[in-house]
Design goal:
- The chain is of the alpha+beta class.
- The chain has helices at about 10-15, 40-50, 185-200, 205-220, and strands at about 70-75, 80, 85-90, 100-105, 110-115, 120-125, 135-140, 145-150.
- It has a domain at about 60-150: Immunoglobulin-like (Sandwich), CATH 2.60.40.
- The chain has 4 helices and 8 strands, in the order ααββββββββαα.
- Strand 1 and strand 2 form a beta hairpin.
- The termini are far apart.
- It is found in: Cytoplasmic granule.
Length: about 230
Amino acid sequence: MAILSEFNEDQENNNCCSCPHPPPSGLSFNGVLDSSNPMGFLESALNFVSQNSDMFKKGSAERKISSLANGLDMETHSWGQSLQEVTINIPVPQGTKSRDVLCEIKMKSLKVGLKGQTPIIEGELFESVKPNDSYWMMEDQKVISVLLTKCDKMTWWKSLVKGGPEIDTQKAEPEPSKLSDLEGETRSAVEKMMFDQRQKQMGLPTSQEIENQEMMKKFMARNPNFDFSNAKMM
């Protein structure tokens, strides 16, 4: 179980400025890693950094976990998805701390809200998720961001929770794949196709033609007495 050292709010206000800055030098994160709940430690560390620095503020879009394509903008929250993950953004009053948040991520259910209040989201998820690979964090002390890792990475969710408003999954648009994201054999095949396409455009031999030429050269070297003057490369 992670244990956080409290941050003095007066100190936080005194250290505010318009440019990003690291946490005050006197601030430290004291955490105890519980082997039975490693994600809890990571979650606490992320929340600690989010609260006490500008790392996750505007201008650092790459660090945010909010990517709300292929979902819905609801009255109390927004959600979106890729084939791998579901992202949820929940606006809360400015100044909300992570200790004020209640977030329970289970394989088939989700409950998110503020402690002592009616949950903002509560219900059975459209599909199963991996709790140990999912997490939540505070962004700018005014948005709860939740990232859920899907178990089935080939399915688009019609809704966040069962019985909720649905989207038309026929209109879902997958993110462009990066070559570096592909598996070994698939990546090699794609690279070969791209190479052959470029070679054809430049009027140069394809990878198969180059391979055939190399085989012929080796055969000719091993058989110098043969006459290859009328041989054609196919």
